[in-house]
Amino acid sequence: MKEMVLFTLAGAAAALSAAAMAACGTTSTVMPGAGVSYEDAAAPKFAPATVHDPSVFPVGDGQFYVIGSHLASASTKDFIQWKQLTLDWNSRPNMFYPVDGADPSVQKVRAQIADVMRGAQNDLGFFASDVHRMPNGKFYHYYSITASWYCSAIGLAVADTVEGPYVTRGLIVRSGEANTGSKSPDGARAWSQARHPNCIDPQAFFDEQGHFYLAYGSWSGGIFLLELDPDTGLLKAGVPGNAENDGYGVKLIRNNHVGIEGPFIIYSPESRYYYLFTSFGALHAEGGYNIRVFRSRDAAGPYEDAAHQNVGAEMKAKDITQYGVKLMGGYQFRKAAGESGLMTTGFLSPGHNSAWRDPESGRYFILYHQRFVGRGEYHEVRAAEFFINEDGWPVIAPFRWDGGSVRTFTKEALVGTWKLLNHGRDNNTTPHESVTCVFAEDGSISGAASGGAGTWSLGADGKTAHITVGGVPYKGVFLRQWDGDRGMWVQAFTALSADGTALWGAGAAVKTK
User: Fold this and answer.
1) pLDDT per residue over 119-169, tens digit each?
2) Distance separating alpha carbons of residues 400 and 402, to the nearest angstrom
3) Could you identify which of 61, 181, 368, 437 might form a hypothetical disulfide with 353, taking C-beta atoms 3.0 to 4.6 angstroms apart as the criterion?
4) What are the angstrom distances between the C-alpha of 473 and each of 68, 109, 220, 327, 433?
5) Burial class of residue 510 (count of CB atoms within 10 Å of its CB; 0-12, 13-18, 19+)
6) φ/ψ bin of 374: left (φ > 0), alpha (ψ from -120 to 50), beta (otherwise)
């Protein structure tokens, strides 16, 4: 069976075994939520937008923007309905396009572009951007311009309002043109893909001590961190970390031109960890893009994964999939017996995410671009809620954010047929698919593994989830979400194993009398 093959990952203890998959075909006449009345929100009405590499930032009055590659942008007030603001592929006019100011000491935008090109034959484009609203109300736009995977730079433009104009303050850091002997920022070495970054994918953020940082990097030498002066937005002078790695800053993740990119760092006051999100794989529909996370007690690292692997040290393995906590990749919930409709949506290559924590509710949201089975390279902005589990790791909700409010349950409300989906550890180029099991009232999961190793339990808080399948325990939360394929609210859960493998569950969407 295809379902069994997709979940059988050699050497991955957390993956559901083939025997477990075969045994999970049991069905039930009882469904999660049957006989339980909820005051659910109205069916959400989604309005999509297309922004690749979306970086989210609040602009005030409950409004959020995302800006991404090619200076595309969109706005929202609820992460459900999006309004497209600027289009893809560097279309003009574009309010985020950097413009020249009156200061003669600042390099003109056309000169910046010429610096980046340096003989490259590729078409130039603006890649991922990040806008940070500063405490003084100004908007700092960190843009990246590139002519190839090695010939790139990150610059800064500043505006008084989100609508601009964004006046350039010049380039901050740039990578080298490999065949012309371009030097590192300190002039000590020729640029090298093995040790130096491709200078794109910026993210600016404050740590808890008030330091202002720029995380950046894509493929090449890894993910880097520079400290900035919040007054100017440019490099802060006299910082020892900025001089490391030939002037490219602190190296958070080391690699040798492998598929790791798109850093985004967020702090959790609940766990007191900094979380470094990245994307592994390649971004196109069949490239296996997936979202992974590392954590540290300090914004400048070192960062490690669930196996306590310090990724700031040399990554010795050629197979990078053994690093990082994989939160989600391509996936598809298969139709369960009794569910309406014929098809279910398949999702591919989610990635290059940003994140935001609501300071009032304490809720966490992750925003990323999402591709779909059968739709080529088309992509949409997606937002999902995520939670910090008992072990201090993020776990992402299985369905997109829908505005729902039900977050606690009784045990009886969770008994019934479930679709389980294991994300594995690979950079999967085809969707991992769900299998069907039954959560029994006695806390067992029928057919989950030989020897009766499948169990489930609900915490005293009415939401904590403990799931064991194939002898592997997972920790997370139960929640209630909108199943768009079936057009109804269902129970769901998201959980993570101790080694960093994500397991999702969705209650079978069968209407009961």
Assistant:
1) 666 777 899 999 999 999 999 999 999 987 778 999 999 999 999 999 999
2) 6
3) 368
4) 37, 54, 36, 16, 20
5) buried
6) left
Q: Which residue has the tokens 């006989």?
A: 35
∠ CA(497), CA(499), CA(504), 5° rounding?
Answer: 30
* Nearest by Cα to 392 from 510, 263, 304, 482: 304
Going along 160-314, which residue ranges are E strands? Answer: 167-174, 203-206, 212-216, 222-228, 250-254, 260-268, 273-280, 290-296
123 burial type by CB count under 10 A (0-12 exposed, 13-18 middle, 19+ buried)? exposed
Q: For 59-396, give the CATH class.
A: mainly beta
Catalytic residue of the set 130, 177, 201, 261: 261
How high is the pLDDT of residue 340? Answer: 81
| Tokens standing for residue 66 | 């995302």
Report d(CA 87, CA 117) in Å as an integer: 24
Place of tokens 């959560």: 439
The yes-or-no answer on residue 246 being catalytic is: no
Q: How many CA atoms lie within 13 A of 12 on its CB side?
A: 24
| Omega cis (within 30) before 32 | no
* Nearest-angstrom CA–CA distance, 274 and 301: 9
- CATH 2.115.10.20 location in the chain: 59-396
Contact 218, 146 (CB under 8 A): no
Q: Which residues of the chain have pLDDT under 70?
A: 1-31, 33-36, 89-91, 119-121, 177-181, 317, 447-452, 511-513
Return the structure tokens found at 495. 């959980």
Burial group, residue 39, by CB count within 10 angstroms (0-12, 13-18, 19+): exposed
Q: Given the residues 53, 246, 304, 385, select the one marked as catalytic.
A: 53
Question: Is-cis flag, bond preceding 230, omega within 30?
Answer: no
CATH 2.40.128.10 residue ranges for the chain: 2-40+409-507
Token pair for residue 394? Answer: 């993020």
Cα–chain center distance at 52: 12
What distance lies between CA 482 and its chain's CA centroid? Answer: 21
Domain 2-40+409-507 class in CATH? mainly beta
